[in-house]
Amino acid sequence: MAGKIEIMETVLRDAHQCLVATRMRTEDMLPIAAELDDIGYWSAETWGGATFDATLRYLKEDPWERLRKLRAAMPKTRFQMLLRGQNVVGYRNYPDDVVQAFVQRAAVNGIDVFRIFDAMNDIRNMKTAIEAALKTGKLVEGTVCYTISPVHSVEYFLRVAEKLADMGVQLICLKDMAGMLAPYAAYDIIKKIKSRITLPLHLHSHCTAGLAPMTYMMAIEAGADILDTAIAPFSQGTSQPATEQVVAALKGTPHDTGLDLGKLSKIADYFYRIRRNYAEFESPVNNQIKTDVLTSQIPGGMLSNLVAQLRQQKAEDKLDAVLAEMPHVRADLGYPPLVTPTSQIVGSQAALNVMTGKRYSVIAMETRNYVMGLYGEPPGPVSDEMKKMVLGKKEPITCRPADLLRPGLQQARKDAGSLVTSDEDVLTYALFPEIARDYFALRAGRMKTTGARQQAAR
Question: Quick one: angle between helices 63-73 and 96-109, nearest 10?
Fold first, then answer.
């Protein structure tokens, strides 16, 4: 069994992604940063996932600047990010040079631990990112995405973990993005991995189905070393178990985290106040125990955003129908684990099926690209009907998808022109050109206005 259990705090990334549609602003993070830095977490998740996109798209903030500000305010704590392998922090594969440059600049700007995953558990899609992260000298977590299907088993997850260990990662992460991992299943998988791989094991889960607190206890018995938790005001529901809950449960045991409940309580008081700022992004769905996630398998972060999107279209009443349709689409696509971008592919196609009233009368381009193999190798066979509708007489690709991509960094630099002022700007443009262009124009206007005010003040 593991000894002391280490904690990763998710409040600055996954917790608000799950509960308030990734809308927490940097200005609400910085006032509590020093207190977070004083806790003694193994790491704090501060970046990656959907936060990069949302920071630009909705908050009109520079995600790189957020990272630098948090880093300056929290010098003692390891910073961790979620990196989608060849998808980086986007929703499609990017060229190798973009992946490599992004990882390098993320390390320079303050990331200490890279959690690298691929939605298909396709090792080929993680290789470039893992090698780039190892080259920076930072810690790398090779990630196994957990799901339930006829083609996934304990042996399947072990094989993925062994391949990651062979690539030189320093930690293995078992990522249960939808909160479906049951206690005894967790025990079996973790026990098997720990018996074959000597690396520390980091478990990530969500409370969507109400299982995670019990699963964490069994995971500890099986040998898990690090757990993901969220400070109480941003915990539970589609988020992680509460940090205080886990700390209290382990206090005085051989697994004692050593964290101070009094200090955590003060941080919780702050975030209880802050959460009120984001009431418009709240949804009862995100705070309920929903065992139907065992069927829909929708991850916490996506559920929050799906509700927001349906609300914008005045179609929130269609949520249950979309969730019920998702297992059908997922089966037709060969049972991919549902995590970005596959969760969006399956969720969007399910929504199209519901909104049009006929299954696959409209097939999204992302669904077509998936069937073509452009996201990687599906875990199971794609249905014959789906292949016929999408491919006709064509055959899907069998190579690593990124092998088909030309280098993209210099082209992004050229296309962005005078809009960019740093290497980080070039990467932002390479990942999200349209959103970046809008943001850079807005930023330039702000700078011009600020400059004019300063001139007037003189």
Answer: 30
Q: What is the DSSP letter of 268?
A: H
Average pLDDT over residues 410-431: 96
In terms of DSSP bridges, do strands 201-204 and 79-83 run parallel, antiparallel, or are they unpaired? Answer: unpaired
Paired with 80 in beta bridges are 45, 113
Which token pair is 23? Answer: 């809308």
> Does pTM surpass 0.85?
yes
SS (H, E, C) 348-380: HHHHHHHHHCCCCCCCCHHHHHHHCCCCCCCCC
Tokens 């390098």, residue located = 104
pLDDT reading at 1 higher than 70: no
Helices (H) and strands (E) in the chain, counts: 21, 8
The SS3 assignment for 95 reads coil
Q: What is the mean pLDDT of residues 205-230?
A: 97
Spatial distance between the Cα atoms of 29 and 128, rounded to a whole number of angstroms: 32
Higher-confidence residue of 455 and 443: namely 443
Confidence at 455, pLDDT banded by 50, 70, 90: low
Contacts of 303 (CB under 8 A, 6+ apart): 18, 208, 238, 285, 286
Helix runs in 147-260, H state only: 154-166, 183-196, 212-222, 243-250
239 in Cβ contact with 49 (< 8 Å): no
Give the span between the Cα atoms of 219 and 228, in whole angstroms: 12
Q: What sign for the dihedral angle of Cα 20, 26, 31, 32?
A: positive
Tokens matching residue 342:
């596959």
pLDDT digits (tens, 9 = 90+) for 33-92: 999 999 999 999 999 999 999 999 999 999 999 999 999 999 999 999 999 999 999 999
